[in-house]
Design goal:
- The chain is α/β, with parallel strands linked by helices.
- The chain has 2 domains: 140 residues, Aspartate Aminotransferase, domain 1; 257 residues, Type I PLP-dependent aspartate aminotransferase-like (Major domain) (Aspartate Aminotransferase, domain 2, 3-Layer(aba) Sandwich), CATH 3.40.640.
- The chain has 15 helices and 17 strands.
- The strands form 5 sheets. The chain has a 7-stranded mixed beta sheet, sandwiched between helices.
- The protein starts with a helix and ends with a helix.
- The relative contact order is 0.17.
Length: 422
């Protein structure tokens, strides 16, 4: 342990930035609690992140002071709620550098965003025999909707392979494109491996073949600065709860030219201009895709989360998290019998691993008693487990409120698991 502390001090000395992690930790009430008598070390951020008091208070304030439906009311509460709701759309537009707030669609999460595109775009523009490209590292949410679409219309799913490091094989991806290829849906960052894909290059290659691209940004939005215009993606999805906002809210970005041509995914109130029994005229963007009363409080919470991240700065967050991931990788790699699954050169804050002779669920149970929360399982990415010939992995995933001291607690807990389970 002395050796690790020495290494930690050296690592901090080499860091070319200053990040006030202890200051930010104070904003997260849940991090101060104890689990089985020990301080909580929360390392399941790829599943969901904890919420700062600024987000909690914003949601509470909405329900306390302005709870009313939006867009339809002519009274004060409704007008104020509508104003705050629509301000979030502009905040999100700025957060991902979209060209227009008309391109920002509020959905229940990244999963619903993908389903909207697969059903609205896919059933409108794809036909029998067409091909859709995904990769071997996709989350189930970016596999199943496309399988459903293929079964509905007679299209075919093509899968770009990954190598032993968990990196997409770009050359093989390029070979999948042909005259039948009509769409590509790819992860920006893998939730099970942490791999950061070279998405700008992948999009450019697709566009050269006149193929639109959707990016699943659920794992990228909390960790990377996103610029959808620079990436030139056609669609981008992410979830609020993975970026310090509430559950049940997310964003679908789509280029306005595509969204104008796509039919609504849901029908109901607010997505219409006029309704008769003979015909319905749909509302303008972005409301055409937002049927019914939305999660108003959730969207306001998302806005508070965007404000919070903006105040810290995504570049500062990325720099600190890379420092943390590097230290964690170096630390756990010294544990005998531990193998990291996913060793791509470009990674975000995910550390998946197996320990010789131990099932990840057993590891997770022992770590829980030590106060350390990790995820154990297939992480909604069964094809990845099959690719690496493991039934599951243990996954520690980091956020900017985690510390190098918590990494050392993780290391001690893993040694404890080895003592107990072996």
């Amino acid at each position: 342990m002395v050796q690790h502390k020495s290494a930690l001090l050296g690592h901090q000395k080499d860091a070319r930035f200053s990040f006030e992690v202890e200051r930010y930790r104070k904003d997260f009430p849940i991090l101060s609690q104890r689990v089985y008598g020990k301080p909580l070390v929360y390392l399941d951020n790829a599943a969901t992140t904890q919420k700062p008091r600024q987000v909690i208070e914003a949601i509470d304030a909405y329900y306390r002071t302005e709870n009313a439906n939006i867009h339809r009311g002519v009274f004060y509460l409704s007008e104020r709620a509508t104003k705050h709701y629509e301000e979030v759309r502009e905040k999100v537009r700025d957060f991902i550098h979209a060209a227009s707030s008309k391109e920002i669609i509020f959905v229940r999460g990244a999963t619903e965003g993908i389903n909207v595109v697969s059903q609205s775009y896919g059933r409108t523009f794809l036909k029998p025999g067409d091909e859709i490209i995904i990769s071997h590292m996709e989350h189930h949410s970016n596999i199943v909707p496309w399988q459903i679409l293929c079964n509905q219309i007679g299209a075919r799913l093509r899968v770009a392979p990954i190598n032993d490091e968990g990196e997409l094989v770009v050359g093989d991806y390029a070979k999948l494109f042909n005259s039948k290829t009509k769409f590509a849906a790819l992860s920006h960052v893998s939730n099970a491996l942490g791999t950061v894909n070279p998405v700008k290059q992948l999009i450019q290659m697709a566009h050269e073949a006149h193929v639109p691209v959707l990016l699943d940004g659920a794992q990228a939005a909390p960790h990377l600065a996103i610029d959808v215009q620079d990436l030139d993606c056609d669609f981008y999805v992410f979830s609020a709860h993975k970026m310090y906002g509430p559950t049940g809210v997310g964003v679908l970005y789509g280029k306005q030219a595509w969204l104008e041509k796509m039919p609504p995914y849901h029908g109901g109130g607010d997505m219409i201009s006029s309704v008769t029994f003979e015909k319905t005229t749909y509302n303008v963007l972005p409301y055409k895709f937002e049927a019914g009363t939305p999660d108003i409080a959730g969207v306001i919470g998302l806005g508070a989360a965007v404000d919070y991240l903006h105040a810290i700065g995504m570049n500062a967050i990325q720099a600190y998290e890379q420092h943390l991931l590097m230290f964690a990788t170096q630390t756990v790699s010294k544990i005998k019998g531990l193998k990291i699954i996913g060793t791509a050169q470009a990674k975000a804050c995910v550390l998946s691993f197996v320990l010789d002779g131990l099932h990840p669920h057993d590891i997770g149970t022992v770590l829980d008693r030590e106060g350390v929360a990790i995820r154990a399982g297939h992480h909604c990415a069964m094809p990845i487990m099959e690719r690496f010939k493991v039934p599951a992995t243990a996954r520690a995933s980091f956020a900017f409120y985690n510390t190098t001291e918590e990494v050392l607690v993780l290391e001690r807990a893993l040694h404890r698991a080895l003592e107990i389970l072996k």
